[in-house]
Automatic annotation (TrEMBL):
One of its GO terms (molecular function) is oxidoreductase activity, acting on CH-OH group of donors. This is GMC oxidoreductase. Residues 281-295 form the Glucose-methanol-choline oxidoreductase N-terminal domain. Belongs to the GMC oxidoreductase family. Keywords: FAD, Flavoprotein. It comes from Cercophora samala. Its cofactor is FAD. FAD binds at residue 241. PANTHER family: GLUCOSE-METHANOL-CHOLINE GMC OXIDOREDUCTASE, GLUCOSE-METHANOL-CHOLINE OXIDOREDUCTASE N-TERMINAL DOMAIN-CONTAINING PROTEIN-RELATED. InterPro entries: FAD/NAD-bd_sf (IPR036188), GMC_OxRdtase (IPR012132), GMC_OxRdtase_N (IPR000172), GMC_OxRtase_C (IPR007867). It holds the Pfam family GMC_oxred_C.
Length: 608
């Protein structure tokens, strides 16, 4: 990068060049009169083959140059296990190391955001932005032949956004059997999931460019070579923001810039004449707020940080989708990604990918299914749901929990997401990184069925561990601290037995009498299912909500224009502002929220 004059104020300073941060930077710098600076802790790894090749993603996890590699505190409800939380530390943030699944939120879910006091944030208002970020490609004929995809509505706007969204060419019999097995349970998708309503199994799309077979992510899309040429957009990589600087002389503190640490350890200050936008992600946006004096008084005083704005909700209400992973040994002829443990197989596939982009390494072949509350007997009838909630009434006192209860009680909403994952999953008590979950260690070949709770009731926290930005914040997800989450998850795990039963198309692909993980545990009753959750639940890596958009008295950190309460010229734009975790995988909502935020910021410029 040519040398940049950091002394001259920028109009906007974006903290974190991740998924949301690059959307904001791109859209604000569309106006060539506006000077925008992005400051990203990691490097630009946009041409790195490990980032670009979808099938090599495991090579990124746990490595300091790509991954912040957070660990939770030991979780009492999960046999005191520690849970890993990978987070992208590079341009593009977590979109550079995610699993590329591209799903859309449900209408009821986003409407619930509005019902929690966020006017303007209902599904219909967000829908244009869910189209704006993407270019959706038509499914290849081979995937239609294998998986039908009749629900995919090709008349819906394809869009021309920076992120390429596509179906895979590499689905196989396991995907086909998955769809048929759910249909046999009365769960077949008939409408396009992009429209905000989906119940049943379907093939999801992925953020993969179908021409190059490479990852399509925030850096390749929103900071592509054309955008990088803009002289009014500066991206500073390998630079840490250590705090926000305020002018405290007026009635409210005004954000005027940031303090940075260059990669040589030099401390500098950079001015923002219009706004500072914090996009450091769910675990680090609250860290920077607290380091800057915005947060709970006790925490700030404990670390000798002068209080600028007292708000104990900063870093609270962290939400995450819990995911329970059960692996099943496959029959000898059933495809499993575990064969990649053989270096000869891996090398052959890498060679094929390098030659033409062909083969499984350029594809995402995960399958998905959404279901209402189900258990070992199938779909749970409304009266049984009511009884379950009645027995947990005392834990359902907040507006959040009432909104979630309504979603789970609705017959249109997906309580669970089930995933078909093509390899075995191992769960060490204290993993070194995300890679340990997905790299095969057992000698036999497996596939994994994953049970995810779309609407968790439990809330965790993330707070600084010291006054230095280098000290990783303490993340305590408090999984299943609301016991209702364990009860719901256990019912989903019971349902998995219906999917793997030898009589189903899916069960027929598993080895007769084969092994399963956790070993020897079959969810024949609720208590066994609860034990499977305790042993096999991890994170789907969808942390959100730590700087929630809500009325302040209900735990909010930002208002409906994503401005930080009690300050001027400071916003947060990333997954931390979500008031409720969206259904399914959340990158689409991160992109859409950031697109909408960019419009809000542009509108507000007129009044600054
Ligand atoms: C392993 C994994 C798999 C996932 N799979 C999927 C999937 O298949 N589908 C899906 O929809 N979603 C998936 N997700 C979730 C999705 O990718 C994230 O929710 C989303 O990318 C988060 O975006 P963000 O903008 O909030 O944060 P990020 O994209 O993480 O951006 C934050 C940025 O801020 C930078 N930063 C942090 N602190 C500082 C600082 N002090 N100074 C400067 N820069 C800083 C970081 O380096 C990072 O680049 C996955 C996530 C992970 C980790």
């Amino acid at each position: 990068m040519a040398s940049v004059d950091l002394e001259k104020p920028f109009d906007y300073v974006v903290v974190g060049g991740g998924t949301a941060g690059l959307v904001i930077a791109n859209r604000l710098s569309e106006d060539s009169d506006v000077r925008v600076l992005v400051i990203e802790a990691g490097a630009d790894r946009s041409t790195d083959p490990l980032v670009l090749c979808p099938g090599l993603v495991a090579g990124l996890y746990g490595k300091d140059e790509y991954d912040w590699n957070f660990m939770s505190t030991p979780q009492p409800t999960l046999n005191n296990r520690v849970i890993n939380q990978a987070r992208g530390k590079m341009l593009g943030g977590s979109s550079a190391l995610n699993f590329l699944m591209l799903l859309y939120p449900s209408k009821g879910n986003i409407d619930a955001w509005a019902s929690l006091g966020n006017e303007g944030w209902d599904f219909d208002s967000l829908a244009p932005y869910l189209r704006k970020f993407a270019t959706v490609h038509a499914p290849p004929q081979s995937s239609k032949d294998l998986c039908g995809l009749t629900y995919h509505n090709e008349d819906l706007a394809k869009g021309d956004g920076p992120i390429h969204v596509t179906f895979s060419e590499g689905y196989n019999v396991t995907n086909q059997a998955w769809l048929k097995t759910f249909a046999g349970q009365g769960l077949e998708v008939t409408t396009d999931p992009r429209d905000g309503r989906a119940l049943g199994a379907f093939q999801n799309q992925a953020s993969i460019d179908p021409v190059t077979h490479t990852r399509s992510f925030a850096a390749s899309g929103y900071y592509n070579p054309e955008v990088a040429k803009r002289s009014n957009l500066v991206v500073l990589t390998e630079t840490l923001v250590s705090k926000i600087i305020f002018d405290t002389t007026g009635d409210e503190p005004v954000a005027t810039g940031v303090e940075i640490l260059t990669k040589d350890g030099e401390k500098k200050q950079i001015s923002a004449s219009l706004e500072v936008i914090l996009s450091a992600g769910t675990l680090q946006s609250p860290q920077i707020l607290e380091l800057s004096g915005i947060g709970g008084k006790d925490i700030l005083v404990k670390h000798n940080i002068p209080v600028i704005v007292e708000n104990p909700s900063v870093g609270e209400y962290v939400q995450d989708h819990p995911i329970v992973c059960q692996s099943f040994e496959v029959a000898d002829t059933t495809p499993s990604g575990d064969v990649l443990r053989d270096p000869n197989v891996l090398n052959a596939l890498v060679g094929m990918y390098q030659a033409s982009g062909a083969g499984p390494l350029g594809q995402s072949t995960i399958s998905v299914a959404y279901s209402p509350l189900v258990d070992g007997s199938g779909i749970v009838p409304p009266e049984a749901k009511k009884e379950l909630f009645a027995s947990h009434e005392q834990t359902l006192t907040t507006p959040d929990s009432q909104a979630i209860r309504k979603l789970v009680e609705s017959s249109d909403e997906a309580t669970f997401q089930f995933l078909l994952f093509p390899t075995q999953v191992s769960i060490p008590d204290v993993p070194k990184s995300m890679a340990e979950y997905i790299l095969p260690v057992l000698p036999d070949n497996y596939i994994t069925v994953m049970t995810i709770l779309n609407h968790p009731f439990s809330r965790g926290s993330v707070h600084i561990s010291g006054p230095d930005v280098h000290a990783a914040p303490v993340w305590d997800p408090k999984y299943n601290s609301n016991p209702l989450d364990l009860e719901l998850l256990a019912r989903g795990v019971e349902f998995v037995e219906r999917l793997v039963d030898p009589s189903t198309p899916f069960g027929k692909l598993l080895k007769d009498g084969g092994k399963r993980q956790p070993e020897g545990l079959v969810a024949t009753d609720l208590e066994k299912a609860r034990e499977i959750v305790r042993q096999r639940q991890i994170s789907v890596f969808h942390v959100s909500g730590s700087c929630a958009m809500k009325p302040k008295e209900q735990g909010g950190v930002v208002d409906t224009r994503l401005r930080v309460y009690g300050t001027k010229r400071l916003r947060v734009v990333d997954a931390s502002v979500f008031p409720l975790e969206p259904v399914g995988n959340i990158q689409s909502v991160v992109y859409a929220v950031a697109e909408k935020a960019a419009d809000l910021i542009k509108e507000d410029r007129k009044n600054l």
